[in-house]
Amino acid sequence: MPLVRLLFFILLLVNLFAFALLQGWLGGSGPRGEPERLTNQLRPAQIVLGAPLAEPVPNEPAPSAEIATRAVSVGAPVAAPEQESDRVPDQPVSPPSEAVEVSVPPACVRFAGLGAEQAADMIERTRRAANGLKIDDVRVGSPNGWWVFVPSQESRDAAAVKVTELRALGVKDLFIIQEAGPHQYAISLGVFKTETSARQLLARLQAQGVRSARVAERNSETHRVEIRGPGDTVSSLASEFGGRYPGATKLGCTP
Hints:
The chain has 255 residues and is an alpha+beta fold. The chain has helices at 2-23, 34-41, 65-74, 116-129, 156-168, 195-207, 231-242; strands spanning 106-114, 134-140, 143-150, 175-176, 187-192, 214-219, 222-230, 249-251.
């Protein structure tokens, strides 16, 4: 029994010591419960305020276009910003170029077998067509007598009709010239060595009623006309002259 009592009192003292320790009676602050800790946290007197926090600045509206314009006008002149997408790189400005004249390559055409009148007519028409064309007239052959003839007709059929008319007037010695040249489809009535003999025949024919006969120097002389100049003009003249002069032959030019 005495041992049990001794243990009982020892346990009681231990419990009392522990209780006193928990209550802080012995000078130490022991652990406390959750309600007391919440009470300590909510005590306003123990809250220490630090440096005051800066108040948030409300968002200020952007300056209006009018204020910005006024600021620019008061200060130094400011160039308006260029839009990157609209900006065109500077390029050198070239002076206006003068009209370039397009040169036409030169051309040449030659007509051979022309009579004197045909050559003269061709040369005159060429001069009227354009300026600056080069014209060469070359005579080929030489006179060999005189002849009486009716000038060249438009075609062989026209020459045959004329022959019929002459035969009706009593003309027997005649023939149609078939060779190409200025006198193609002309009607020859006689060839003589002298002009006097040719004139005598012409007088007799006129007495018979032949009014279209002529006397001319009989020769094998012909004209060769060469035309040089811009290709378009020469080509146009070549087409025009090709069917205008009976007996004429269109040839190419030598360099």
